[in-house]
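User: Hi! I have a protein structure encoded as tokens and I'd like to know what sequence might fold into it. I'm fairly new to this, so please keep things simple.
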């Protein structure tokens, strides 16, 4: 995918909200920070050091002397689910000392994390348990394995729904056509509209170890047969896929493309609506990747920070065999901010350059609770109309988004009306109606936490996606 933002650089600075201390100063070369690392148990092993976009260990409230893996955050970044391996509290520890259970931590008001707790209820069993993905409104957890009523498990994936009292329902299996996996390791990521899954599986047509497979939603819990994504697969292992909130940016870990160590984290951009064609995967480099195992990448809500698991540095700066870390992302590592040439306003940009691109228009404004365009919105939309006249093959989806305040259904309706207002204005400027689609997403695709006025302002936005 080609993605570019045409609005002011509001969120380009990496923000590190955690229980470590972060002092920052602005220089001509950008942000230089002093990170005071969270001290591990026992005597201090390292002095604070100046770094830029450096790793931050999430500390002893989340990390333990065991292996802490696979962070999965709610969209507002208020809860982190993760896997803890080998803890005696795990349900299957007595039978299997390497048992994995689901643990979680709640984010505090100061940005730190409460002491992690093992998740109670039906999701932890004597089998290997783990959250693999969460939907955009935090009401569905996608889980590894199928849960049987007798407490046993089998290969596959399940879904659990959040109940009115905050608990999670007994997981229902995903009915995936012709599903099989030749190993016990299986991972997945789901699109923001829950219509597309990318699996990490080993099957008969795999190129090597685990490869990526695409499946589309049919209805209910039924999903189509997994199809190999050739362009992302290698003779090595492709694991831990994560699709960003823009549904175009994919992060994953592999040992099949070289790099700094055994498994490195890569980024690729979706190029069309088939989900089969991707940009050449790019290694995210140091300090995200190391000579050790680096995987299970997960974006924070704003898209400028990431969480992941790594065994590198745990002896010197960490807590256990593998810890969960946080890091700020440089702009070219984030979703929604990259375009190889020019901008949408560049007279030399072609329709081919813009295919699949997503743009944000900060100057398209509405009064609170209304869908009528303000006068100040029209200059920006006039520019969009001019581009569409110059490029007659361009088709756009205008997307309306809101913050999380108020009734979600009313927010979806309001965002739909606002998106339609933009389309109507472009039509009045001579753009053919069949080149425009209005889509209201309401609060279900946040790009920032909804717990501050600044975060809510970022979520109230109009996006334009160039359709293929």
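Assistant: Happy to help. Inverse folding works backwards from shape to sequence: for each of the 468 positions I chose a residue that suits the local structure. Here it is:
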């Amino acid at each position: 995918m080609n993605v570019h933002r045409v609005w002011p650089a509001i969120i380009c600075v990496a923000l590190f909200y955690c229980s470590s201390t972060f002092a920052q100063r602005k220089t001509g070369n950008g942000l230089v920070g002093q990170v005071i690392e969270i001290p591990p148990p026992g005597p201090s092993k390292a002095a604070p050091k100046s770094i830029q976009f450096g790793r931050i260990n999430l500390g002893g409230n989340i990390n333990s002397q065991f292996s802490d893996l696979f962070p999965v955050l709610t969209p507002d970044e208020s809860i982190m689910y993760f896997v803890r391996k080998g803890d005696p509290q795990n349900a299957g520890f007595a039978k299997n000392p390497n048992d994995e259970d689901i643990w979680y931590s709640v984010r505090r008001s100061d940005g730190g994390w409460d002491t992690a707790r093992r998740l109670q209820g039906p999701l932890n069993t004597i089998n290997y348990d783990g959250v693999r993905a969460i939907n955009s409104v935090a009401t569905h957890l996608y889980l590894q394995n199928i849960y049987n009523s007798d407490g046993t498990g089998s290969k596959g994936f399940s879904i659990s729904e959040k109940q009115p009292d905050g608990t999670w329902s007994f997981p229902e299996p995903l009915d995936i056509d012709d599903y099989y996996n030749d190993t016990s390791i299986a991972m997945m990521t789901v699109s923001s509209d829950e219509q597309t899954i990318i699996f990490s599986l080993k099957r008969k047509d795999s190129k090597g170890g685990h490869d990526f497979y695409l499946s589309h939603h049919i209805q209910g819990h039924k999903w189509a047969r997994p199809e190999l994504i050739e362009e992302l697969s290698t003779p090595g292992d492709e694991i831990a896929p994560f699709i960003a909130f823009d549904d175009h940016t994919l992060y994953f870990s592999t040992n099949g493309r070289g790099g700094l160590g055994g498994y490195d984290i890569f980024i690729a951009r979706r190029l069309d609506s088939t989900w089969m064609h991707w940009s050449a995967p790019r290694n995210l480099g140091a300090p995200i990747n190391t000579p050790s195992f680096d995987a299970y990448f997960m974006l924070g809500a704003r898209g400028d920070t990431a969480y992941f698991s790594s065994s590198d540095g745990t002896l010197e700066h960490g807590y256990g065999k593998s810890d969960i870390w946080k890091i700020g992302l440089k702009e070219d590592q984030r979703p929604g901010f990259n375009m190889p040439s020019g901008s949408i306003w560049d007279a030399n940009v072609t329709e081919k350059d813009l295919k699949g691109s997503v743009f944000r228009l900060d100057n398209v404004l509405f009064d609170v609770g209304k869908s009528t365009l303000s006068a100040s919105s029209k200059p920006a939309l006039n520019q969009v109309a001019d581009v569409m006249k110059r490029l007659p093959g361009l088709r756009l989806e205008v997307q309306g988004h809101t913050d999380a305040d108020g009734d979600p259904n009313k927010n979806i309706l309001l965002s739909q009306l606002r998106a339609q207002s933009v389309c109507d204005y472009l039509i009045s400027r001579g753009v053919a109606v069949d080149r425009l689609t209005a889509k209201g997403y309401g609060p279900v695709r946040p790009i920032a936490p909804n717990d501050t006025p600044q975060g809510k302002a970022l979520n109230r936005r109009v996006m334009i996606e160039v359709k293929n």
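A useful reference point when you look it over: The CA atoms of residues 160 and 171 lie 4 Å apart. Feel free to ask if any position seems puzzling.
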